[in-house]
Each structure stands twice: as C-alpha cells, then as structure tokens.
C-alpha cells in the first residue's frame, strides 16, 4: 500500500503513514484537542496533516514546534494541553503518558536488494539480523534471501524499549545481544546503529543500506580511538557537568547521581545540570571543563565534535575515574 | 553592600546577590533538593553558587541548563524535580509555582550620573521615570537629581506582572502608561525598553545608560518602518504559524486561538504551534510563509532579522487582517 487516499494528495514517499487509522482513533475517542508531534524529517508535512485531522475529526490541532528526536522525546507540555497526542514516525517506547498514539512511519523500500548485496560479504552460515523501525516490517525479505543462499538468519526478541523483534535503537541493542551468533547484518541507513551493534556485541557487522545500495563492513576502531581521546582530554578536568535530560525516555537521574558521587569520591567538582535539548551553547556559559551525558548516547558519541569540552558517556566516565578498565569499554545503552 | 562574604570570594560585580538570604530560606525549609536557575549573564557563576548551596544548606543542587530569559521563563520541569527552586536575577512575575524563590540581582552602579547626563535633554518640568529591575532600588537618586534641577519626577505604580514602582519589562509598560506626563526618562541599558515606552505611551523618551554614560533620545520611527515592512511582506502569505510559548509567563493560548480564528475568517491557513525556545530553525521545517508570535514580544520586534519569514506580533497581525488601522498600531504587551 502506498499512501492512503486520506493524505489528500500529499505524498510522504518513501514513507507510508496510516493516517486513516489515527483519524479513526481520534474520532472514536471524542478528542476535541489533538497534539501533533513529528520528527524533523516529516515536519514539512505537519501543517497538511494538522489540516486533515481538523477536516476528518473536527478536533483542533496544536503542532509541537520543538525538535523531536525519537519516541524518547515525547512533548510532555503538549501532552498536558491536549486530549490526544499523535506522535508520528517512531515506535512506542514502553511506559509513557496514556494519551499518546504512536503512528510509525514505515518505508516502502524493499530490503531484498540490500540483503543480496550483503550476502557476498558475510562469513558465517548463521547471522543475526537487525534494523531500525522503518524497515522492521520487511525483515521477512531478508530472511528469505539469506535462506536462498544457505544462510540462517536470526532475529532477536522484542522487549523493554524495543517494540519489534530485530529492531535496534541508537540507545538499545538488546535484540542483537540476545543472539548467539558471530556476525550481524544490519539493514538501514547511517553508521551509528551498526557501530552500536559492533560495540555492544563485539561481533562482526555488515551494514547494508537499502536506500543507497551500499554495503560496508563496520570497523569500530576509529570511534574507539576517538572515545579514548575524549577520555584522555578529560583527564585534567576538575569541574564536570553531569547532564540529565528532561526528555522522558532519556532521563536517567539516578545514573547521573551515581556519576556525581563517583566523581566526587575522586576529588572532582561535579554539577548536575538538567536540560531539554543538549546543544553546545548550553555548556559554554557554565564554565565546566568536561561533561558526562546521561541523555541519549548519541550526544557524546555522535556529536562530540560539536562540543569544545570532552563529553563522555557514563561508562567512559567510569574508565576515566578508574572504576572500569578500558578493555571493558561498554557502549552506553538505555534499557528501561 | 558589595557581595556578602558568603559568596566565597566569587564576585558578581557589578551585581549584588543576597545569597545568604537564599541559604537561610533553604535551610529553614528543610529542602533536600534545590533547583538553581540563572540568566545567561550569570550562568558562569552557577557552579560556584551550587557549591555554596550544598556547603551552606546540605541540599543537593540541580542546575537548570536551558537558557533563561526572565521570570516568565521558570524551568517548570526542574520545579517538579526539586523541593525549592532558586531563580536568580529577575523579579517575581505574579502567579507561578509555589516552590520558587526569586532572588533579584541588583546592580551596585549609582544612577546619579545617568540622571545628570539626561537632564539637559529633558524638555518638561514633569517627567515619568522608568527603569529595569536591576536599578529599581536606586530610583530615589534619579528623583533627587531631577528635583535639584527643578524637575518633578513621577514613578508609576507596581501591579500585575510588575513588582516595583517605576519598573518596566520588555513585555509590560504599565508603570509608564499610568502616568500623565509628556516625557519619560528611562534609566537602563539597551534600546528595547525605551522604545517600548515610546511606543506604548506615544510620548517622548530620553534614555540614559548608567553603565556607558550615554544618553539618547528615542526615535521609534525606524522600528515602526521595519514593522510596517514586516506586515507588508506577510501580505501574500497563505499559511501562518501561530506560535504559543510553553514558558509559563509567555503562554498566551487564548490569544493564539483568537488570532487563528481571525486569520481563518479571512481565508488564511492558520496552525497553532507550541514550543519552548523560539528559534529560526524551528520554523524553517514547518514550511509556513509567515508567523504570529504570541510569546515574548521581543521575538517579533527584536529578533525579526534572524527569521526568513515575516514574524508579527498579535496587534500587527490584526493590522494585516484589516481588523486594526495602522494608525492604531499597538506595542504588544503582556499584562497578567
């Protein structure tokens, strides 16, 4: 199914969004005020979607204007303003406000070619399969191609913040870690998720991008060298900010307090800093020499270059404080 | 009094902050968790203040890391995390969460010279006096200098979101509007507040900066021309975002709904957009052609150049929609 007729001619291609389902839920609930939260990639469609909600359900719509980075990033203030919140593009993440409808954006792109491209690069006869939510409904295609080439594909179980078997999040690789395999095939775009699988499992990862058609073998060494560099640069810092996110799915206050106590035990000055979007200018004025981010792991691992001070994940801070050996480096994950 | 000894050698010069008073309130309240919110100009002092709170009261401190633009901008998420929130630098703004202590930052700078510098530029024998909160405790000096020069100084009454007689906010000029005078003297820094007085009262304004020593006669015409230009540029827009701030003292949802209805009545597509910090990149992705900001008036009036699309205040949108004559241009204010 491409876009349903209800999108009023507006195309989300290559995504499909079952807006009719959302309209039906809103109508049946009798909601008068509906919140609409969409990731940046779909923001341009938000006004048209708002217009359709109004037309199809009669409800007044308020669009969330703040950036949205995932299902971890529910607009709580908007949730309080409305009867129902329609959150587009991400899979539900376990516990959250009751009035949120998650409407996933699924990519129409087939995964057969990506799997075919990956096959020559695989070494094992049994491989784990992982992907992100927009492709998860097509993992059957990958299993089939692998089988045709005499390879057994395994898909790890859902659970915790992971809604679908085989799904990974930037902050959670439990479906991969549950599998006893020596090799993974990651279907999706970008290097962060397959790097996460490689670091979280310690196994070989072949990444196949269904959009570009490219295949690459993931080498975690460059990232590990950068992280080792960040830890070294933080060595002389006396003052650390421990960043705690306000975003409901990124808020790890207890972990932050443990990091604060760990640093203080080693004679460091540690400050808990609570914030919504973590951006470089937020830290400049605080005058700290390094930071530990307990928010989304990507802030330290993916955006490090944006910050003037070393930004560590909690396991990296443990390495710095001598509580963890570098050989036991752990990729920062959020499970609950 | 300069900085009290409790600041532990840390200087807030030229501001004075009675931190001892805050420590005493925290101690007496028995608070275990204290939030600390400071404006950008004091952010560098936040870690040292946090350290002192811990030392003097034993309470654990969480610093608000998001930008803070005024008493309108209480960090509500942090309020919910802590027993007491210490909000530095701004005067209380009427209703708000019960657990916030407002500790104003008062400038030690005398106002005599500023008043003396202004005297030759005044035309009337009776002038209104206005200033911002950091100078309001020294308005007596201005009254005295004026009197010595045969000029009667009048100070308008507090009330609503204005805590002190003679105080103005970027969003509220009620103390000035209450006075029957033909001329105002504004003591303070920057052009926005005296422009606000000029536009809100229609009267002559002489601005005297106690820091730089400069005096200027305020000419609202360039700003009015720019605003007329913004309204003209919005003329052909079909799609408008009506921006509503999440900040408790800037949230004007009912006004936003009236603006939406007004635009829709004139055949425009109007979208309510709820957001925390209003920044240019927030609007880029929404694909609207113009915006009406019901948040802090400075966003449309002071930051207009940062936005690619015309950004109007509610009264300006009324002009655009033909509901208000340009001759009845009104400076956007927030009273409650």
Structure description:
2 copies of one chain form a homodimer. In chain A, α1 (19-29) packs across α2 (46-57), α4 (112-118) packs across α5 and α8 packs across α12. Chain A is flat. Chain A contains 12 helices and 15 strands. Chain A has a 5-stranded mixed beta sheet with strand order 8-7-9-10-11, with helices on both faces. A 4-stranded parallel beta sheet of chain A has the order 3-2-4-5. A 4-stranded parallel beta sheet of chain A has the order 13-12-14-15. Chain A has helices at residues 19-29, 46-57, 76-81, 112-118, 139-148, 174-177, 192-201, 221-233, 253-265, 280-284, 297-301, 314-320; strands spanning 15-16, 33-37, 60-64, 84-88, 100-103, 106-107, 126-131, 152-155, 183-187, 204-208, 215-217, 239-245, 269-275, 290-293, 311-312. The longest helix of chain A has 13 residues, at 221-233. Mean pLDDT of chain A is 94; it is low at 1-9. Chain A is α/β, with parallel strands linked by helices and 336 residues long. At the A-B interface, α2, β3, α3, β12 and β13 of A face α2, β3, α3, β12 and β13 of B.
Please supply descriptive tags for the structure shown above.
homodimer; 336 residues; alpha/beta; four-stranded parallel sheet; 12 helices; 15 strands; 31% helix; flat
- pLDDT averaged residue by residue of chain A: 94
Q: What letter string, H or E per element, gives the SSE order of chain A?
A: EHEHEHEEEHEHEHEHEEHEHEHEHEH
Q: How big a fraction of the residues of chain A is strand? A: 15-25%
Largest sheet of chain A: 5 strands, mixed
What is the radius of gyration of chain A computed over CA atoms, rounded to a whole number of angstroms? 21 Å
Largest interface: A-B, 43 and 43 residues
Structural class given helices, strands, pairing of chain A?
alpha/beta
Principal-axis shape of chain A: flat
| Order of strands in the sheet with most strands of chain A | 8-7-9-10-11
Distance between the termini of chain A: 34 Å
What is the number of helices of chain A?
Answer: 12
Report the oligomer.
homodimer
What percentage of residues of chain A falls in helices of 4 or more residues?
25-40%
Q: pLDDT below 50 for ≥5 consecutive residues: which ranges of chain A?
A: 1-9
């Amino acid at each position: 199914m491409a876009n349903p007729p209800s999108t009023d001619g507006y195309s989300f291609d290559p995504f499909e969004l079952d807006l009719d389902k959302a309209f039906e839920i809103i109508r049946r609930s009798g909601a008068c005020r509906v919140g609409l939260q969409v990731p940046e990639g779909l923001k341009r469609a938000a006004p048209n979607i708002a217009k359709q909600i109004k037309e199809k359900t009669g409800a007044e719509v308020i669009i969330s204007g703040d950036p949205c980075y995932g299902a971890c990033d529910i607009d709580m203030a908007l949730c309080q303003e409305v009867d129902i919140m329609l959150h587009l593009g991400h899979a539900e993440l376990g516990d959250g406000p009751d009035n949120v409808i998650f409407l996933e954006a699924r990519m129409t792109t087939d995964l057969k070619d990506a799997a075919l491209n990956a096959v020559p690069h695989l070494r094992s006869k049994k491989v784990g399969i992982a992907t992100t939510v927009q492709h998860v409904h097509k993992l059957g295609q990958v299993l089939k191609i692998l089988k045709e080439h005499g390879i057994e594909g395994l898909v790890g179980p859902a659970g915790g913040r992971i809604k679908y078997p085989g799904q990974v999040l930037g902050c959670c690789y439990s479906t991969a870690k549950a599998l006893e395999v020596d090799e993974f095939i990651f279907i999706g775009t970008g290097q962060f998720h397959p790097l996460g699988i490689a670091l979280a499992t310690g196994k070989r990862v072949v990444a196949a991008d269904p959009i570009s058609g490219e295949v690459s073998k993931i080498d975690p060494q460059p990232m590990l060298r950068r992280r080792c560099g960040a830890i070294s640069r933080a060595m002389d810092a006396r003052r650390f900010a421990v960043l705690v996110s306000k975003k409901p799915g990124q808020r790890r206050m207890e972990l932050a307090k443990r990091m604060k106590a760990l640093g203080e035990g080693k004679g460091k000055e540690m400050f808990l800093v609570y914030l919504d979007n973590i951006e470089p200018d937020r830290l400049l004025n605080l005058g700290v020499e390094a930071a530990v981010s307990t928010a989304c792991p990507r802030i330290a691992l993916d955006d490090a270059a944006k910050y003037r001070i070393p930004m560590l994940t909690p396991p990296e801070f443990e390495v710095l404080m001598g509580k963890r050996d570098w050989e036991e480096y752990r990729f920062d994950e959020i499970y609950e």
